[in-house]
Amino acid sequence: MGAHFILPHPTRKHQMHTFVIDESDALDFMSKLATGRVRFDAILTDPPFPNARASRATKGTRKHELKVGNAAMSERGLDYTARWFGRLAARLLRPTGSLLMFADKDLLDVLRGPIESTGFRNRTIAVWDKGSMGTGTSFRLQHEFIVHFVLSSPEFHSNDVPSVLRHPRVAPSRRHHENEKPVELLKQLIGLTSPPDGWVLDPFAGSFNVGFACHDLGRNFVGCDLNLAHVEAARARRDGLKAIPIAATAATAV
Ligand SMILES: C[S@@+](CC[C@H](N)C(=O)[O-])C[C@H]1O[C@@H](n2cnc3c(N)ncnc32)[C@H](O)[C@@H]1O
């Protein structure tokens, strides 16, 4: 975490909603946040997916190795990492908060058990319908899962979000990140799981579109990414935003 990282005191009056963009490893960042006072209404994130092709390519030699982002990882390593992530997420969320994770089938297979072992319950698996097929053969993928984990009875802040959310992919010419999620899709998820002036965390932020969606909706955002180029691009975009004054201070401190 950068030396200039300061999580604002949640009871102080701000001129603008918080929009933290940090260059960090997700688990380091979450560990440091866990010593602070803010509890999040929602953790909405999109971790790197295990690469099934890399997994098949290593069959026979290193059968249980997966490729996650740029890192090769054993299934045991991934299981351990997911448990660590789950424990930190459980400490950072309000008891009535929501953990929402984008996942494909492979990531869902490896994440659900370890995360549920840390006190979460998988409540729903919603679907992002991208409106058109991806590349490949047979069942060409047109969807991703949005996996909803809760610690107890979650609070919802909107009643018009279906389990299938239809939003076209971000057009390549308008993309800031190769795995960028559409802001309008993220706004539906944030509006469902956090109140006005609430707090949202994304520790695998990529384009930081979760933060830009929070800005549009009047939520506080804290996020990080390991990749400096993504962080710098997001900071440049954030510098171009107009301030939206907040009416009330966040009531999410514990
Ligand atoms: C699937 S992308 C997220 C895309 C994002 N949802 C968006 O809309 O742009 C995953 C991101 O996680 C980042 N990442 C990978 N390993 C990480 C780690 N250990 N800590 C933090 N970020 C990491 C990658 O740099 C990548 O930008």
UniProtKB/TrEMBL annotation:
It holds the Pfam family N6_N4_Mtase. Gene3D superfamilies: Vaccinia Virus protein VP39. GO terms for biological process: methylation. It is an enzyme of class 2 (transferase). Its EC number is 2.1.1.-. It comes from the Bacteria. InterPro entries: DNA_methylase_N4/N6, DNA_methylase_N6_adenine_CS, RM_Methyltransferase, SAM-dependent_MTases_sf. Keywords: Methyltransferase, Transferase. GO terms for molecular function: methyltransferase activity. Residues 41-234 form the DNA methylase N-4/N-6 domain. Belongs to the N(4)/N(6)-methyltransferase family. This is Methyltransferase.
